[in-house]
Amino acid sequence: MKRKTFSLLLAMLIAISALFGCSGSKTSSSETSKDSKSGGGTGSSGEPVELIWIMGDPGQVPIDQAMVEEELDKISVEKLNVKVRTIYYDDEKTKLALSSGEKWDMVFTCEWFNNFAVQAQAGYFADITEKVKTLTPDLYATMPEIVWEGAKVNGKIMAIPVKKDYAAELFWRLDKKLFVDTLGMEIPDTMKFEDIEKYLAAAKKAYEDGVPEAKDAQYPLKLNNGGLPGPDSSFDMINRDVMLGIPYSAVGTPDQDKIVITVEHPDLYDRLVLLHKWYKAGYINPDAATTEETFIYSAVKNGQGFYGADAIWSSGDGYAQVISKYSGPYLSTASIRGAMNAINANSKHIDLALKYQELVNTDKKYRDMLRYGVEGVHFNYTEEGLVKRTERGVSNYAPWAFSQGSYSLSSVEAAEGVDVDPNMWEVIFKGYENLKATNTIGFSFDITPVETEVAACKVIRDKYWIGLLTGTSDPAVEVPKMMKELEAAGIRKIQEEAQRQFDEFLKSKK
What we know:
By secondary structure, the chain is an alpha+beta fold. The chain has a domain at about 35-165 and about 340-415: Periplasmic binding protein-like II (D-Maltodextrin-Binding Protein, domain 2, 3-Layer(aba) Sandwich). It is about 40% helix and about 15% strand. It contains 19 helices and 16 strands. A five-stranded mixed beta sheet has the order 2-1-3-13-6. A four-stranded mixed beta sheet has the order 11-7-12-16. Strands 8-9-10 form a three-stranded antiparallel beta sheet, with no helix packed on it. It is globular. The N and C termini lie close together (about 5 Å).
């Protein structure tokens, strides 16, 4: 994409994103009634049509899922004569459901869950390129062209992006009570990745000195065998399985369109060196590479988020956190595809599923209920229009909100000990004026020509990856060993094929 064109599209993103659609669908179900064999089947008369939506796994099926669905159905039946049954699957079960022919109509998909590009190329997802514009114009209008561009595979829109933080930003998350209230440390709005080291050291010392607020900070950066999230956030990733990407630091240089193996590049390698240093210093728990425990509390955490995410994280974890951005904003195909919902290419109700997705993404009342549950039971609104979740809401209804539909449409959540801006999304989208982007928007690497090599290299990558991402392995020793094995398995051939395809993609954009 030429830089001038990208700038115009980005301007559209910022302008359009400020307009949050709150109305329901303007088209009645009867207007879209078609024969079910053509994928229309809207349930405009008779018994409501049941649509099955496979969502991401939040850890457990929400206890009050049936109660919430009953209330949601009252709205969707009135507007579309449709009911929705939600199934919560993890990544493995979701992929199995698709490959085995299990019945479903809509499914959560992204770069890291139910691999979007791979599943789309396999033919599981319906092509909605024209339908999303003609059948659901209100849905299409919620997002600018550049976002829909990122949802394309081989030039066709194959899923509905969740309107959220399009440009990826990574944050350090610090315990406010420990670092600010007790230790009196100042936490800037932004810092470098390595700047967190002084906070890790301070937390460790406070624990050793017997400071009560640091009693759980023996290892201030607790990790499990998933490793540190987002170590490659400084790259526009082309394929994570084989660590191919373009460093954002190359944007504007002669190398801006050069695909590299990220673990060889200093933007990732230097972070791995720091992780190992922190592990040896005792900042990371010794069993990080083997434990599967999910740590609710850690003096320091990190994660992909946005301005205002401190309220969400604080509420979810049960303690006040202060955040500091160390990466981004970076716009990429991967960030646009950070959360999406696709429609089954073999569904008897493709049109109805698309109309339902329009409801989810344009009706604020429905969206709030889908995210937070039943008003008066699971949440209440504050005078400022924020959402305050009840104890029952926290314990009995906590789906992955980012996987459902427009994040920016739903009301902002309040949090104890954190100042929350009800207009946070306007601030977020305004901040995207300073984002960086490579020329990969809309590009998908087709691994078919090197499928065997990719499979072999992924096995090798996985063998070393946990140790590197938890700091338990010394990258000075392990990375050269890994690269030797990867080169024998064909990593350079994969890199060359990816570069060839990307070069062809760039030519087609001129």
